[in-house]
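Two proteins follow. First one:
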Amino acid sequence: MRTLIKNGTIVDPASRICSKNHLLLEDGKVLAVGGEAEAWLGRPDCQATDLGGRTVVPGFHDSHQHFLCYAIDKEKIDFFEAKSLEDMAELTRAYIEKYHVPKGAWIQGGGWNENNFADRTLPTPAALDIPTVHMARLAVVGFLATLCTQLTGLSTGVTFLVGGILFGAIGFVEPGALKRAGGEGLLMLATYASVAASFVSMTFAQFGQMLFPVLGLLVMGAVGVMILSSIAGKLLKWSPWLSIAVGLSCMFGYPVTYAIAMEVSAGVTKGKGFTEEEEQRVVKHLLPKMIVAGTVSVSIASVLLAGAIIPMVFG
């Protein structure tokens, strides 16, 4: 059945009509306006509706803008042109550097279309936390630490450790950055290479001459360290094993102490039902002690002792 709208103001922009008029409808569609619609008034197959002077207008396509939301969106990262998760990560890095976003602050973005990605993978926080970001930041810290060593003459073991602490405190380097970057193996390789470099200019005769005295010193030193560490551990209320481990770090020094602490922590926790949080608690309990002990011993104690003992042993 058709419906006739009467006694109302009809607005039809297409026909430039805005006047008291009639409107004929069927199944939600407009069939006629004006006199042609009025001809259906009083017919039994047409139901009339009196508007009582109200106005009828076409349905609006509401093309408006929330200016506050628009302004807020302009402060976010625009991922519209991103074609991959790598593009999103690069845009995020650029945004952080441009606006100096502090550590822990929220970063918002939008506008990406995963259908434009090669693998159509939805982005996640973990996907944006890529190894190259951490490795690049570590490289910057390493460069600055090396420059500091060249200018001051301080040991690289000291400048690298202090640089890591300072840049970690300001949030430039995140905790566990080396592990996230997958560079722990690289660190071990560099450590072994630095040790091997010490023997490059040494002849086999010189090596054999100093081998047994050095081994004897290492054995005596290790026994002495274990005894004194156990005593010191009782005073500090540490377990004997932890005390001995920290004490023996004076025989390695940083960064080997870092590698040892991480290996021990992994050996204790991996595959034994520990959660990631529990694994980090073990690392945080052991790693600072090992690093500080190794740095202090290598940078201070070993220099003093070597200056006194080596002349006595090797003349």
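Second one, unrelated to the first:
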Amino acid sequence: MSFVKKFLRILQATRNISLDGASLYGMSGETEVQSILEEDYFCLFNRIIPHPKFSDRVIEIDAIVWAYGNIFCIEVKNYVGEVEFKAITQPKKGILGWLGFTDIVGRDTSHIVKTKTTNRGNSYSEEFKNPLNKTKYFISSLKNYNLSLKNKYFIPLVLFIDGEVDINNIHSIHDGIIYASEIEKFFLSKSNSGIQNPIPYWLKKELLKLPTWDKVITRTSQVHYGILNDLQFISLPNENKEISFDLKKIAQIKVVREDIFSEVDLLTIIYKDKTKINLKILNGFIILGRFGKNDKHLFRNIKEIVFSENSL
């Protein structure tokens, strides 16, 4: 391999697509909740269903949990700062109104506002749709997606990770906007018996059918979730192997690179029927889509690809 090719390969191998700080912080909150729930409850994470209005989109829920005879659909938020419902304002009377001063006359519960104060004392605000409404929308869409669940009662819940957030202005055990530390209390408040019975077999079977994201793990151990839309590579001329590109049949792809100067990547393609093939490739990439955005990941930057058991 020429020096130029080696240099380009090293350069490409260092150009990983990285998650931004907000995404990493949000995922850390979801991971924390998963570790709490998995010990005691039947739960599924990051399930997706087709968007009922847009054929090229999906909607997602962070967790579905069976606890004390109820099913909870949970959205997890890992925020820093104070959270409140959006203020409804009107101009003050008289000259103060002309000068732009306003009075708060109510709250818009369809939106929340997060206000964060920096170390320098400056504050800034961000506005979001109320995550509880998003959770309710997922529930109604889920019932239309899987008619077996049409008459099943789902309880919406939004969990805010304890620590650096203040949700006292929107907190409600009744409505399901709580701190993560209150989750057991909330589960019990919705229970008739306080007894944790096993999930019915038919219900577990239907919930397990729900699709989830494909997963790409990079060489820097970052995990990217999305729907794998394309997979292409150039194999070595002497690698005369029949390869199935039906992504629905593939369970996992493992990628090994001997060293940073290596001309080839070593792939192990593992199919859902447990068969596998090994081959050497010169170049290759995958396209991972999520919420309308497509990212191109080079195989030389990938450690592992895990395909969803249930694809859309």
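SUMMARY FIELD: The helical segments are 3-13, 21-37, 95-98, 131-145, 183-189, 201-208. Confidence is low (pLDDT under 50) at residues 3-14.
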